[in-house]
Amino acid sequence: MLKSMLVDYSNPNSLAHRARTRRWEEMVRRFPELGDMRVLDLGGTPQSWTHAPVTPAQVVCVNLDSHHECREGRVTGLVGDACDLPDALRNERFDLVYSNSLMEHVGGHSRRQRFAETVYTGGDLHWVQTPYRYFPVEPHWLFPGMQWLPFRAKVAVVRHWPHGTSRQHRRPPTVTEAAAKAAEVELLSATGMRTYFPHSQIWFERFAGLPKSLVARS
Known about the structure:
- With 218 residues, the chain is an alpha/beta fold.
- The chain has two domains: 2-136 and 185-217, Rossmann fold; 141-184, no CATH class.
- The protein is built from six helices and ten strands, in the order ααβββββαβββαααββ.
- Strands 3-4-2-1-5-6-10-9 form an eight-stranded mixed β-sheet. The protein has a two-stranded antiparallel sheet with strand order 7-8.
- α4 (151-160) crosses α5.
């Protein structure tokens, strides 16, 4: 029941469904010509664009997971690192660089810097969303305040907490695997986001009046 109300995108009353709808509305308002744009999606999948209210003229998704390598209409999925683009894309320039809930996963300060450089050099405009560190519920494991716990306590949550937003956040069988999962996510503050995107506007996506996620946009 908890997962259905929070992260079930097929449930129109869920937090995830309502948040995604509001986010798309804001994005379309910000970029009214989205349907005519060439979009570089860092970390996304071709399947995720089936939920979009507007399909751009072309979308290229870059994802480390080879399962998402495909072409679906105007959307193409390529295997690659968002912090170090494949050779085929390094000289490309898009109308919009888009990323949803990836930046907290790329791994460490230097990798986040490289990710931001990819965003700035990859297109004229950008929309980069990441969960907000100070929202009271950690968004991947749906555990209150998990992001502020000591690392050992985080590992215990990963091993024993039964809720999560995707299969990759289900309970791992060993402490070593749980530690790797806990270390994989580093949520950002507004100050951190401004550090990586000093020339961007930071928009606060809110839920119940509280900032839920951050969007660096131009």
